[in-house]
Amino acid sequence: MPAAQTQALRLIELLAMLEPAVVAEHRPADQVFAEACRAHHEWGARDRRLFGDTLFAYFRWRGWLAGLPPARALALAGWLEGLAHPALAELAALAELRLPAITPETLHDKARELSLLLGAEKKLSALLPDWTLPLLAAADGGAQQHLEAFQRRPPVWLRVAPGQVAAVLDFFNQPHPRAAAHPRMPGAISVQPPANLQGLRAATGVAAIVQDLASQCVGQLCAPQPGERWWDACAGAGGKTLHLAALMQNRGTLLATDVRAGALRELEKRAAEAGVTIVQTQQLRDGNRGAGGEGRKIYDLKEQDTELATVGRQLAEQGSHIGPGEQGLPSRRAERPTRDTGHATRDSFDGVLVDAPCSGIGTWNRNPDMRWRTAATEVAAKAALQRELLGRAAQSVRPGGTLVFAVCTVTTAETTGVTDDFSRSHPDFQPEAAAHPLTGAEQPGVFWVWPWSGPCDGMFIARWRRR
Prior knowledge:
The protein is α/β, with parallel strands linked by helices. It has helices spanning 3-23, 29-39, 45-60, 62-65, 70-81, 86-94, 107-118, 142-150, 165-172, 197-204, 213-222, 239-247, 261-274, 306-318, 377-394, 416-425, and strands at 156-159, 179-181, 188-191, 209-210, 229-232, 253-258, 279-283, 349-355, 397-407, 429-431, 434-435, 442-443, 446-449, 459-466. The protein has 16 helices and 14 strands.
């Protein structure tokens, strides 16, 4: 059987596995896909890249494609995404589809062309769950701009030392340009996937870190200084922790806490590989008093780690080995801590970062399956948890110290709704103005990184100074 036919059949099988796993079982698509890659060592790098690109394109356009026969849905997903591959042509032939040679550029044109192909009107609003748009924060472009951003896959963003930028650009821009340095963010480089990090390190010696541009903005707004003491209260697998350590020039103290032992082990491994020695990890247990607070238990400090999910998907698509203890996907389950490791003390840090758990809506462009496994009730639930975590963490900021709150979402409830309440109830914390890392414009302590800014993840950041 020709390779394209085999790949087309594999895509149909994978979709049959992924659709119920994501929609009914609420499992992350990248996790399920990585498991399939581990089970099929015969799939080469090109196979994995084709499968990953096509399947994630399906979830991006699922609002228009759900319910169609698998071959038809996959062929249309590839066409809407602008993908070209013999396997997709095989799927179109199986579905008896005659697709236009050129994919329309604009979202409205895609909707019109698809409506003509299927004989049924396709509305833009169907691309997201019906509860989504009313909850999104207002932006200059309104709902239309949010919709368009969610339907575009952003580049992979890397972080390297500023002095290594030229070598990284030389590597990725041969033989054709695929990478660009951000004009304002030091060391930030966008790469059109796939980003071969193993090849980069072998050729240049540069160990680039995958970190979205929006996430890099968080570290810049924390602005930690060498020799200071900082606490990353919801560290996850440590993307922002390592950025803080780099900004501190590996001098000072950096406490990273999380409820998940597995995430902290991944952070320790990444810190060792990067030569970072100032990070101290501390596992919080259910019922731990955190930053000196009393009472209620804290669960799920960091449910999502989208940066590591991106790395895992990228390695799967490139055909790299993924397995326990490797540079693959971190566990997404909330691990039950096995021991009490103590808690942070009050008024003891120069700065505290609360990179709080959230609905993750700001990452729907990069993780399109999340929109089909996120419930409307999560927004209010996460906002309540954010208020609690922010209030607890604030107790550990010394007088004159910095408190930073960040969430990778763009809902009003989880952003200004939380920070406005905090400012009213904590008059000893003054919102602190600063220049926006991506534009240089002065902002009054509240910073939006919209999904179309990079393009990158959507992120909200707030900064206070304790009186």
